[in-house]
User: Fold these one by one.
Assistant:
Number 1:
Amino acid sequence: MVTPPVQQTSPTFVGMPAFPEAAQRELANTQQRQNLHRATHTIRAKRAAVVGEVADWEAIRVAGAAAKDEALHHLGDYLEQLEQSLTARGATVHWARDAAEANRIVVDVARAKGVDEVVKVKSMATQEIELNEALEAAGIHAWETDLAELIVQLFGDLPSHILVPAIHRNRTEIRDVFLREMGNVGRPAPADLTDEPARLAEAARLHLREKFLRARVAVSGANFAIADTGTLVVVESEGNGRMCLTLPETLISVVGIEKVLPTWDDLGPMLQLLPRSSTGERMNPYTTMWTGVHEGDGPQEVHVVLLDNGRSHVLADSVGRQALRCIRCSACLNVCPVYERTGGHAYGSVYPGPIGAVLNPQLRGTTSEVDASLPYASSLCGACFDACPVRINIPELLVELRGTVAEQGGHRAESAAMKAAAWVLSDPRRLAVAQRGATTAGKLIGKRTITRVPGLGAWTDARNVPTPPKETFRQWWARERDTSGGEAGPRGRADGIPKPGDGTDAGGEA
Amino acid sequence: MGAREEILARVRSATADVTTESRLDATSRRSEGRVPAGRRNPSEETVELFAENVADYEATVVRVPADAVAEAIVEQLRSLGRRSVVTPSGLDAGWVDALRGEFEVVAETDATSAQALDVIDAVVTAAAVGIATTGTIVLDHAPDQGRRALTLVPDTHVCVIREDQIEHDVPESVTRLHAEAAHARPLTWISGPSATSDIELQRVEGVHGPRTLVVVIAGA
Ligand code: SF4
């Protein structure tokens, strides 16, 4: 049996430093840490409240995991069924082995329509393949229509420079950029625009509406693809998804092959699990379901691109394949003590947080610095597993991957070092001390700038801050260890991640 | 080998260790065409819960007897100061007549472009299913709800739902939709007006969808 190929690291993330050094860099950014702290804790509380309302939550988790497992274990059959259902309903199905192939398909369809722009609903799959860059290269402008993405684009942070701040923009900055830039790319912002969030949202509404009304081609992802009916599902908040999925003549959806659900009824558990876990709502504002072409309603040309790009490689690992159950809710990010302090970018991928620490090395292999270090980006505290709506045992998978990295021998120093870090982080008392320190530091900084709700949005945090590689993990570790004796106590706590030797109440274990 | 064959071959070899039987044949179409058991009216608690949860999203909720629906629609649109309203082709004729008295009424068939819809203040529709535990309205865009753009472009949506369309929870709603072969039509699940928290974590109601949502629950 030939193992299916891994995913090629996309251009943006080639040469990313290993997690610990990227993380260290992020930790120095106190503002971001404050934002993340506030965001993750807000969403965590909301999630806990709405999950608490559901009496049989655990049973629904089990049902959700079972539905995904059924699809994954028999993925060949369900993909064929999905293709059949879609085709029967008038959709055109394409298959893409990797990012380049998927991009080529989308560019070709857009070109055939003769357009020089497309509107986009934010989607992880299209970020993963860096579709916007491919479209730009073909002379087709991709308008992101999610409010946060619009802000990023207006700041000139074009998608080709993914690692650029968005979360740091406060309301005044957003007003200024709206006033300055909107007129250059479409309908200008009203001259009397204030920095009230409601007024800013209104300005975005008017600006984007012009684009929605004239767009002829839209690109989306899908949260679920139902094999027995051929229905695609997009879950969203703002309504930009509905606009993109409804108004243009042509719709192209890029769908990872792991998005398949066997039957319509599997939506029962999924639509309970996803919104509550993601944004902490009983239900998200809007969900759109479409089944191929609907005569007289919505796009009359519907394309679906089924994307592999390393997923079959993950599937080949009988234990690791459970990671493909992920529905990208980001609950694991919001409960993760490591993510809260480092932010998403340190993970070197569009998939951050605990699931990113698993999925990236699974998809891309463990040969690069960052991918080999990611399995250590965890305290193994288990909070992610408890939060995960489809019961992915992230700690178990991290341990497995650590074994793989250790076996390949190239990162022994890292693994020894991170064992010590894991030891500090895994003791709740030591971690509590560190967390108290971080919280106090955060409070002192005050709340000045913008942050965004993770949940459906946390996935984009990975592009928040540029992090030029400076030193290897070995250098970082050696330096930190050398200085840990004297000053590491207070500084270590303010940074949030305790240094080895910072175990104030440490016993004798090492 | 083409991409399709290659991906399918990869996936099949990746799952070669799986020994369980696929439930593909057993379960496919398990609920389609099945008449949902007992189309009974929901309990008063379920209707109350639905009303509460819809209101929780900052939508306006009114409960009226079936014969007072037209009046309620007119009253809501009047108090919101709306002037023009688009009506789906299959909307209750009595409601449309009531609207004609006071508003500029545009038929769905006369507002064929998104641009035309963009200058209309409001839309009035029926609904397919309501979900109490989540405060959700599901539109299946049957003739009394109109094509999707109708409930997307105008800024105010008045949605009328009958009590007997309200299900208690998500799974029974999903099953009901399938039983009615709703996937033959597009579906829109609406839980409150559109919202964003992208600016300083502050929730703003209404970005691209209708910013004002009025739900009229019609009793017997
Ligand atoms: S792994 Fe994380 S993002 Fe994925 S479903 Fe589980 S909690 Fe959600």
Number 2:
Amino acid sequence: MTEKKTFTYYPGCSSQGSGRHLDESIRAVMPELGIGMVDIEDWNCCGASVGQIGGGPLSNLALTGRNMAQAEKQGNKDVITGCAACYLNTHGGNEKIKADEQKKADINEALGAAGLSYNGELQVHHAMEVLVNEVGMDNIADRAKANPLKGLKVAGWVGCQTVRPFAGTDSGGNYDTYEDPDFLDDITEACGAEAVAYDSKTNCCGGSVAVMKPEKTLHLMEKILNSAKQAGADVISTPCPLCQTNLEMYQDSINKKFGTDYNFPVVFPTQLMAVAFGMEAKKDAGLHRQTIRAEKLEKMAKK
Amino acid sequence: MTAPLPEVASRKYDLTFARWVRDNVEGGDKMNMCMQCGTCSGSCPIGPEMDNGPRKTFMMVRAGMREEVLSSSTLWNCTSCYRCTVRCPRGIKVTAIIQGLAQVAAKEGYAPKGENASFANAFWWSASTFGKTDERLVPTLYYFSAGFMEGIRKSLDNLKIAINMLKAGRMHIGMPHTIKDKKGLKAILAKAAEIEKAKG
Ligand code: SF4
Ligand code: SF4
Ligand code: SF4
Ligand code: SF4
């Protein structure tokens, strides 16, 4: 393995709830690839996409400011997160603080109320970006020799917020393209599984509108499920915890509305990796946390 | 000979609102670059749920239609998918502008009840009180923001989902998760709100 690099980890609120299996599988596979992770001490919610509406822009930015201040104290320059919304807010917020002296001063004045400060020296990364740029597919494939997922057909669903918000910026993750990125399929193949081609790869499920008003977005999710099914996939893989939860939990409603019979498992790429690395189905891959079980993948697990 | 063209009273656009957006909304400084090509609205996954969509919204801002823009359903249906932003040939931060306008609308009291703004308030309450977002409390508060019966109905609709999530260990019973230094966070947010207020 290449030299170990340590990141300060921002788990985000979903890690303690709907996205526990993302958090568990990230914590399991990253160290296997030489990436060390230390949690931000006493981290708080980042405010997600609606924080600025509820709290106002500066207060919302102060949430990220506090996380950054805590992380900076811990010494590592690089922060990693697995949640697309956390990444959007934390990376975006951090860049805003770094780019604008006045904002930085305001944030520091606010942080001062709790005896904290932030110099603006951190860089925030998405877990997928770290896998692509820091770890590399060869290393994933190498480690996946333990238990390659032969015969598993995977529809890689990139969704929106992992790649698009920072498209074209210097720190936007350097994905190959923003319309049709390959990294998720590359991870699938590095795990020894087959990436199927289908046309909803970067479609949006409705995000937080889906959480609030599912009736407005069920057709968006139906289209994703339909095209993955048409392509012959056994399972959908997505890096985003909200995508995973939305697409999994609304299948009943979708079936009711469209007369379909989906019972389609949706997992995270890090869960595929944990199984391919020969790690434990439960403790490391968190496969027992699927409300629609990924049976074929479970059967492939060595432990 | 054809009859002379009739005189049409010219309508003067009031640019005050457009200038305000330019100076106060993130990305607003580039909005005058918009060439009305419609790529954004054409790419929008949720276009049918929007009355105007981003392209028309931008034109309306230019036309000074403050009321119409701030009370538009476009602001509350944006999923933040960023498709418009990556595709805009003029490099306009479309998503940021729509979100910025939503925030102004919420602040000025235009946001309809039971829409995204109620969700945003519920979310902020959880984030600022506990330092963490409780995925059970936020939707519940939000559902009830639309009225008591609506809250009951929505909660029942989601009961099966909630039970499945509980079984999978992805939802917990009991008190919300909290950060240790709630007092510190509260002080930071109070200070931030104070600075924000001082700036108007
Ligand atoms: S974006 Fe979501 S998961 Fe991330 S910290 Fe905020 S609420 Fe939590
Ligand atoms: S696909 Fe849905 S949940 Fe995923 S990033 Fe897009 S809006 Fe968010
Ligand atoms: S895509 Fe850009 S230029 Fe075209 S209408 Fe939308 S904002 Fe204007
Ligand atoms: S970010 Fe909002 S406005 Fe833009 S395409 Fe997506 S949903 Fe439509």
